[in-house]
Write a structure and sequence with these properties.
Layout lengths: L1 H18 L9 E4 L3 E4 L12 E3 L1 E2 L4 E2 L6 H5 L5 E7 L1 H4 L7 E9 L8 H5 L5 E3 L14 E2 L1 H15 L6 H4 L38 H8 L3
Antiparallel strand pairs: 1-2, 3-8, 4-5, 6-7, 7-9
Length: 219
């Protein structure tokens, strides 16, 4: 009898817990059974790693990416491709980036969200965004170009308040010659070299007759 009541209590408690917000969410519904479920994107944590996105430099008005190909070479699935071009803003003296990305494409169907591209990037140009709702019916529809990647990066920056990890190093603002500190270098001493045709004086000891006679006399 007691065990039967104990089992009923356990069933009643589990039933009440089921009416609350469950731990496992049925994507993309949120909410619970009492207040009703709402079809909205499932919230993600700040540490969530979605698809990669490119970042934008608002100070200059251009991407951080210079298309150096480091992320493409280190990608384990080879899902990226990019081309570079001469930066027109650098020719105008408005940016210190000599090269800038011209085209960038990622096949998100092959991306494994490993984050290696973010770790090897030297210019804070790529980040793992929170974007994950990009399901398509065709396999090749998962390709995103430069404009889409920059859009994803801007949305990620607005939601999370992203800032560059190395703002001084990767800033595109040109550095003036007066503001750039000149490193102090010690000059090496000059080496004196004699020309090949210059005669060199050589000291030679010539034996005399007295020295020869002294050598013959026994001691």
């Amino acid at each position: 009898m007691f065990n039967s009541l104990k089992g009923l209590v356990v069933t009643l408690v589990s039933t009440m817990n089921g009416l609350r917000a469950p731990v496992t969410r049925q994507y993309p519904d949120t909410g619970n059974r009492l207040t009703g479920r709402v079809s909205e994107p499932t919230p993600v944590k700040d540490r969530f790693m979605g698809f990669p996105a490119l970042t934008w430099d608002d100070e200059i008005g251009e991407p951080f990416c210079t298309s150096c190909m480091v992320c493409i070479r280190d990608c384990p699935t080879q899902c990226m491709s990019a081309t570079m071009k001469d930066n027109p803003l650098h020719a105008q003296g408005k940016s210190r980036r000599r090269k800038i990305v011209d085209e960038f494409e990622i096949n998100l169907g092959r991306c494994i969200l490993c984050g290696i591209c973010v770790d090897v990037c030297n210019f804070d140009a790529i980040e793992m965004s929170h974007e994950h709702e990009l399901s398509k019916f065709q396999r090749n529809d998962n390709r995103v170009d430069l404009a889409q990647l920059l859009k994803m990066g801007k949305e990620y920056r607005e939601k999370t308040g992203w800032t560059p990890k190395h703002p001084e190093k990767n800033s595109g603002i040109p550095i003036k010659k007066d503001d750039k500190p000149r490193p102090f270098r010690k000059r090496a001493p000059k080496k004196t070299t004699t020309p090949a045709n210059t005669p060199v004086a050589v000291e030679v000891e010539i034996p005399t007759e007295d020295a020869g006679e002294k050598a013959k006399t026994p001691s």
